[in-house]
Amino acid sequence: MKKMFFVYALLLMFSCGSFAQRKFSVYGVAFYNQENLFDTCHDAGKNDVEFLPNGSYRWNGLKYTHKLRNMAKAIADIGTDVLPGVGCAVVGLSEVENSKVLDALVAQAPLAARGYKYVHIEGPDIRGVDCAMLYNPKLFTVRDCKLVPYVPEEAKDSNFITRGFLTVSGTLAGEHVTVVVCHWPSRARSSYYREMAGRQVKALKDSLLRDDPKCKVMVMGDMNDDPTDKSLCESLSAKPDIDKVGSTDMYNPWYNILAKEGRGTLAYGGSWNLFDQILMTPNMLCKNGKKDYSTLKFWKNQIFVRPYLIQTDGKYKGNPKRTTSGGIWLDGYSDHLPVVAYLVKEQK
User: Fold this and answer.
1) Closest among 280, 18, 303 to 172, alpha carbons compared
2) From CA 330, how far away is CA 324, in angstroms rounded?
């Protein structure tokens, strides 16, 4: 299997100087908001009526099977720019309804061919949308998982219930890696609620590192905030400059993609936001220009785009091609684009 995910592009990149004749393995880690991956049946206790055959989306078997097919194709393609035919070791997901849709998703041919499995814990969200994580068991081994609840910090918010933080501990490239998959409170709520999420995820990350300082922690998800917003910059202490990431900070490689390049993962009102992010702890970084890949380290990241993911005509031309828009079924994918980070480790 190592031969499959060994990337010759890295040999070219490292072909001079001290990297000559050394081999490196590459692993893709991604996140993708599924935009309402619902089945057609009612889940007791959940407000999923919009996605029933008689609901506002007129969600039926045909639309559901097309949605599964489309999302499986997109997920299978993520990371194949660098890892052709292999794709990602780990893919975090948001907006999945339940384990039944995940069973159906990993049964789709492009994902089944790679043997993807999933981690999912039913959460308290009233709409019934949860986070999940797909993984290739040939590359990632699950140790344990838990759903850490989002806890309101003030009594006035005691009735506020939202998605928790899916925390999956495992082994990747022979190392202890923990992935925290998030879907922070929507922008229907003020920034304060996402700042709470940032503080709680930081506390979770800190506790994981206290338990094992060598653990590589990645926080990924739809944050419903940009990398430049307070919830990321201050609450989670996510920094855009590798060399300025302190021991209690995280690195956010998406900040400059939005702030300097103006690119994002979802469009609103004619401009881009970059809500979908993957952040990492300092022990995953090569700092001060030192290219030490003796342990698993961050290499590069990208917003993953294919032509089929983009609307080609009409009012929303150039935006992500979503499943439904303005009450019209587009047979699309998601209103978000996927993101992927590539990790590197030298082969011994």
Assistant:
1) 280
2) 5
